Amino acid sequence: MNVQIAQNIMNSNKLIAEFMGDIPKYVIGHGKAYDKYNDYSKSWDLLMPVVREVIIRHQVDEGIEIDYDELQNRVMDNDIERAYEEVVEFIKEYNDKQG
């Protein structure tokens, strides 16, 4: 995997974790200590609670744009990669709006 892609996934996972109020695991490896976040891009079990929270927050705050049909289609098509991307885009917009 490309280093840039891996970094983007790591940053997106951190973004999702903060949105959900998750606490990272503190890991020591390769002589360093760092935070490890769940990999929401690989697990429906981890991503679906985030999808639910996105839907709830979208319903509460109509000012945030999300292609709800696109998110729903990605979930129904079992396309975790695209569903993950939709969730990350929503969270970025949500965070920008929150200030």
Low-confidence sequence ranges: none
Biggest pleated sheet: 2 strands, antiparallel
Radius of gyration: 14 Å
Please give the domain count.
1
Number of helices: 4
Q: How many strands? A: 2
Structural class: mainly alpha
Mean pLDDT level: 84
- Distance between the first and last residues' Cα: 33 Å
Approximate shape: globular
Strand content: 5-15%
The largest sheet has its strands arranged as 1-2
Proportion of residues in helical segments:
55-70%
**SSE string, helices as H and strands as E:** HEEHHH
Task: Explain how this protein is built.
- By secondary structure, this protein is mostly helical.
- The chain has one domain (3-98).
- The chain is 64% helix and 10% strand.
- The chain contains four helices and two strands, in the order H-E-E-H-H-H.
- It has helices spanning 3-20, 44-60, 68-76, 80-98, and strands spanning 25-29, 32-36.
- Helix 2 (44-60) packs across helix 4.
- The longest helix has 19 residues, at 80-98.
- The radius of gyration is 14 Å and the shape is globular.
- The model has no long low-confidence stretch (mean pLDDT 84).
Annotation keywords:
single chain, 99 residues, mainly alpha, two-stranded antiparallel sheet, 2 strands
Strands, helices and their partners?
Elements: H1 3-20, E1 25-29, E2 32-36, H2 44-60, H3 68-76, H4 80-98
Antiparallel strand pairs: 1-2
Helix pairs in contact: 1-4, 2-4, 3-4
